[in-house]
Design brief:
By secondary structure, the chain is α+β, with helices and mostly antiparallel strands. The protein has 2 domains: 42 residues, Arc Repressor Mutant, subunit A, CATH 1.10.10; 83 residues, Lrp/AsnC effector binding domain/regulation of amino acid metabolism (RAM) domain (Alpha-Beta Plaits, 2-Layer Sandwich). The chain is 38% helix and 20% strand. The chain is built from 5 helices and 4 strands. It has a 4-stranded antiparallel sheet with strand order 2-3-1-4. β2 and β3 form a beta hairpin. α1 crosses α2 and α2 crosses α3. The radius of gyration is 20 Å and the shape is elongated. It starts with a helix and ends in a 14-residue tail after the last strand.
């Protein structure tokens, strides 16, 4: 990756909806060159996709929480199995596999506290591999999507 690629990535992180022509103009290259650069970055896995940022509250998911989960027994198969199961829960926005005391961090969004309680007690805790969990309700999200700083 060179400086031009870094500049393209920075501009796309700020506004992925800009046209290729606008992106090329902003970095000072031909549109065809810019398009090829973006395609190469995508093929190499640097750019993984383009997404709309959605407000969970606008979809009636006003309560969000972070849930730390421990699974037992510890094995690669159990980690993979729980990871897939957790990602399939409609309440779960993100799944993070961790090192340390807990094995997973789940970011969940639900309609209200009763739904959060139901998810934790009636669905999550009933999975036989779940040895324990701790949840923290998110009162306020101060910062959402931060562009990844690029090294020169």
């Amino acid at each position: 990756m060179d400086e031009l690629d870094s500049e393209i990535i920075g501009l796309l992180q700020a506004d992925a909806r800009q046209s290729n022509r606008e992106l090329a103009r902003r970095v000072g290259i031909a549109a065809s060159t810019c398009l090829e650069r973006v395609r190469t970055l995508t093929r190499r896995g640097v750019i993984r996709g383009y997404h709309a940022e959605i407000d969970p509250a606008a979809l009636n998911r006003r309560v969000q929480a972070m849930v730390l989960v421990q699974v037992r027994p510890q094995s690669a198969a159990m980690i993979d199995s729980f990871q897939q199961a957790a990602a399939a829960f409609r309440e779960v926005l993100s799944v993070f596999v961790l090192s340390g005391e807990h094995d997973f961090l789940l970011h969940v969004a639900v309609q209200d506290l009763d739904r959060l309680h139901g998810f934790l007690v009636d669905r999550l805790s009933k999975r036989r591999e779940v040895a324990g969990f701790r949840s923290s309700v998110i009162f306020q999200q101060v910062h959402d999507t931060q562009p990844i700083p690029l090294e020169p």
